[in-house]
Amino acid sequence: MPELPEVETIVRGLRRRIRGKVISGIRILFPGIIEAVSPLQADTLIDAHIEDIERRGKIILMYLTGGRILLVHLGMTGKLIFISSDRPLEKHTHLILELGPRKAVHLRYVDIRRFGRVLLMERSSAYRYIEQKKLGSEPLVIDEKSFTDLLVKRRGSIKALLLSQSLVCGIGNIYTDEILYRAHIHPEREAAGLSLPERTELYHSMVAVLTEAIRKKGSTISDYLDPEGNSGDFQNHHRVYARQGRPCNGCGTVIAKKTVAGRGTHFCPCCQPLE
DNA sequence: AGTGCGACCTGATCGC
DNA sequence: TGCGATCAGGTCGCAC
To answer: How many C-alpha atoms does A53 have within 13 Å on its Cβ side?
Structure first.
């Protein structure tokens, strides 16, 4: 589930809760979820301190002492839960970092569908790993001209492009639909066929939607919670996502749903004409 | 450089 | 009550 606003909310929560803490134990309940990239072993995490937490697109980077990085992809249903160590384990807990000198608290990785991954790597390997993914710019960092210039050089539908992570990174299915709605652009429009005013409106919609979603601490669709157990609020502000069959807030037309770029896609046929 | 698929997983929901 | 089909926030690899 987690897209940029959820991952950003998670990173902020982790900074508040685990920055500076020592890893005093590690328990791996499902070995397939964690990959310790050679020559590192998972047990070398013990006694490392968590120096800082950052995000690149949807990837979480936890900087550890000793020049190592714990890199976390949450996939569709991954969660990082900061919780007292005496609390019962949630179903589908795959990895536990025991924190503090007395192991009083846990950071637990829980992932129902197991699409997520945790990788322990040297810093240089982590950067190389991210480099290989060819991620685009951060959508809240790229400037308007760079965005509109890059967009026009790309082929294919605008929906597929926003989902691809290669123009900008961090946007997934929910936010793609919300951004295109607010820019009045049909998801099947050719990226290269958008006019300059349309590309400019798309840029500002992207910034506005992501900024507002971060302020509302992301969207909770079925089970997303931040590390402190809080749900997001932005789902209450979705204008098209999961609103098929209901009236558009702008014009009253029934919101449509169809598959575009292989994903369920929600849009207003009136406000987002295909032309 | 594109597209469309299936694969990877579990669980919720819906129609029968 | 059960059963199968379908769908779900993501990404990868493959054939075309």
So the answer is: 22
